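Today's session is about reading a structure prediction critically. Students often jump straight to the picture, but the first step is always the sequence itself: look for stretches that repeat, for charged clusters, for runs of hydrophobic residues. Only then move on to the predicted structure, which in these notes is written as discrete structure tokens rather than atom positions. Here is the chain we will use throughout the hour.
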Amino acid sequence: MMNEDSSATMSSSSGGGGGIKKVFQRLSQTYQSTLDRSTPHTRLRWVFAGFVLLLFVLRIFIYQGWYIICYALGIYHLNLFIAFLTPKIDPEFDPYAQDDEDDGPNLPTRSNEEFRPFIRRLPEFKFWLSVTKSTGIGLFCTFFDFFNVPVFWPILVMYFITLFCITMKRQIKHMIKFKYLPFTRNKPRYQRVNDLAGPNSVAGNSK
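Below is the predicted structure for this chain, in token form.
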């Protein structure tokens, strides 16, 4: 009888654990499918991220607290932004860079060369996801008083502005040195053969 009871208890506990695991798997699948569906909607995604960030800023201004959380979030967003502007392969350490040009990587300089899009170290989707997650976590932390550490916030503001200026200056110098822009532009657009031929040729062929 004792063995039967113990086996029944183990089976019930394993069944409960399996049920919890299925719930977490279902939540994970729903979360991933939601992210997959939101991938092509870039503008709507950033509108949502801006809304969450606006809620966080309003809570900071209304309650006049949690400046440490705001400062840490600003530093984290700055690091994300720099990674978003940085190429995936740093031209300074690119093994395929041209040996005869020390000032830049092996990038197209004429219109007849091969088109190469700018590949970021941090892709746009991951940039958005990290910004949204971190802002949501920061907003959640503002509901707890033990995160509200008393500080003199003007010092944090001045330090953040100084750090932002120094970081962006270094990034702009890097762009100028290796002659790149963190945006894909001048992408060639190809037309169909029918569009090039025009409607007149189509009418002539029909005759």
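Discussion point for the tutorial: The radius of gyration is 27 Å.
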